[in-house]
Amino acid sequence: MNQLIRPAARRSAAALWAALLCLLTLTPRLAHAGPWVVSGSVMGFSNSTKQGGSGPGGSTVLTQVDLLKQWSWYGLGLFGQFDLQGSNEHDTGFGPKLEIHHGLFYVEGGWILSLNRSFTDRSIAEQTGFGWLAGAGVRFSLHGGGAHEAGLFLQFSYKYRVQTIKQQDGKALSEPITQTDGYPLFGLGARF
Amino acid sequence: MRSPRDRIIDRNPPEAQRAAGRRLVSAVSALAFSVAAAVVVALALAGSGCGRTPSSLLRQGQLPLYDFPLYVIESGSGQIQKIGRGGNSDKKVLISGLINARSIATDRFNHLYVSEAGNNRIIKVNVDDGSFTVFKTGLTAPGPISVDPSGELFMVDESNNTVVRVADGDLFAVYSVLPTGIAFGVNGVLLVTMDSIGRVDWIRTPKPLAAGTTAAQFAASADIASVTGLNTPTNVATDNMGRVYIAESVPGIGRLLRYHQTVPGGGSTVAGSLNFPAGMAVDPIGNTYVSEQGASAINIVTFDGALYSGWTTGLLGPADLAFTQY
Asked: What tens digit of pLDDT does each residue of B176-235 get?
């Protein structure tokens, strides 16, 4: 199955990076190098229900870490995601991302090159696949500086994510599972 | 005397060129941002969906929402009926010509699975038009089926008293007697009924077993809690809260029992004096639909315990029931 996933993943990733490279090389006069940005964001909730005995319940924590280089109106970098779906499921994903910013606001798009779900105490142990990420957000400087000045900032964003599960316990699914999520993230970051 | 060319140069000093460059950068930036923002909004709107559609994948803390349409096996006619809220006035044959259809199950992707013992296979039915594809063939004795929280289909292999995952044939439970019903509940607990010994097992954290595992080895190693002393517990189902419903399939004195989710406590009788109850399904507000083979009907037990007979009648041997999952 890896042979089925990897060529498609490689082609998509190569196309994405080629597009980003074109942006960098073809617009040198428009692209004034800016700072590096590193940030981390998180969102969590928990719930429990009871009707007689204990019903469905649990906690979810969604996180994302970004590292990117900013230019005058765009940025390129990498992101990683780590999600906890209760104590039974851990999701991880990472890949390249492109960001376009304008003042305080930014939008982003990323390719989840590698997606992995690990389960404990479930009838399956692992699911793998790939996905896409899109988001929009705002960054507020904590030191009163401009949108591109070095320093700490607060970050609020809304993500839209599409995950496609192709393999389960090392075997190809007859029909891939496609899951979409929309969720907010809140975080802290720094430009340097 | 300044030439026209000089005046042109004066109007385009380096500062002016830089200002023009900045304006161009700003315009490109604003345009790119606007286009990208529009794409993000379009994606978000496309992903949000409208109306009720089966959920793509359940997240932590969720169980399926079971609601109409309701599907029922007519074992006497080899058909599966698709029934809407109206009951008798809102039913139609979804598929016919089945040979010894033993069990049905739905998943979160709007699939309907049918265990067809007469053809040694499990089929996956298109619930819109009744067409189907063969999901698994070459089975020896497919019996009751159910879908776990991960969307995996499980079945009882009646040839060797086991519960297996259909996709890969992995073994998950082994018994010395025939399991007659299976279902999944909160945290993936696997529920197994054995009517010949009056017992229902809550198998917590079901895991694949090594090939060749014996019933004794399974009983010793698995995390199992049981309720015993029941009178012919043939079938089992769960509701939106994960509560467990057990049908005692006895003519005239059949009962529908309810238990807590992850431990076999809190047992109570939902309905009694039923005439061979064979299948049950619970709607989002807690009304229980029971197929009574002895009455050729599906009856309703409301969430407050009232029994309404004859909600859907004229069924030939109604057996397994399954709601659509949302």
From this structure: 999 999 999 998 899 999 999 999 999 998 999 999 999 999 999 999 999 999 999 999
Distance of CA A173 to CAs A128, A154, B55, B226, B325, Å?
10, 41, 18, 34, 21
How far away is chain B from the Cα of A1, in angstroms, using its nearest Cα? 15
Question: In angstroms, rounded to a whole number, what is the distance separating the alpha carbons of residues B49 and B41?
Answer: 13
Taking only the tens place, the pLDDT of each residue in A81-132 is: 999 988 888 999 999 999 999 999 999 999 999 999 998 878 888 999 999 9
- Is the pLDDT at A28 greater than 70? The verdict is no
CB A185 within 8 A of CB A43: yes
Backbone angles phi, psi at B263, to 5 degrees: -135, 150
Domain spanning A2-45+58-191 has what CATH number?
Answer: 2.40.160.20
Chain A residue closest in CA terms to B268? A52
**Torsions phi, psi for A121 (to 5 deg):** 55, 35
Per cent of chain A over pLDDT 90 is 53
Alpha carbon distance A30, A169 (integer Å): 47
Helix, strand or coil, per DSSP, at residue A127: strand
Q: With DSSP H G I counted as helix, E B as strand and the rest as coil, what are the percentages for chain B, rounded to 5? A: 20, 40, 40
Provide the whole-model pTM: 0.81
Rg (CA), chain A: 19
> What residues of A are in contact with residue B29 (Cβ under 8 Å)?
72-73, 100-102
The answer to whether the beta carbons of residues A150 and A191 sit under 8 Å apart is: yes
Contact A134 B40 (CB under 8 A): yes
Q: Pick from B183, B173, B187: which is nearest to B103 by CA?
A: B183
Task: Provide the H-helix boundaries in A57-179.
Answer: none
d(CA B216, CA B222): 10
- Residue A57 confidence class, pLDDT cut points 50, 70, 90: confident
Decide: B230 and B200 in contact? Cβ < 8 Å.
yes
- Rounded to an integer, the average pLDDT of B155-170 is 96
**What is the pLDDT averaged over residues A39-54?**
90
B163 contacts: CB under 8 Å, gap ≥ 6: B154, B155, B156, B157, B171, B172, B173, B174, B179, B182, B190, B192
Of A56, A171, A178, the CB nearest to B186: A56
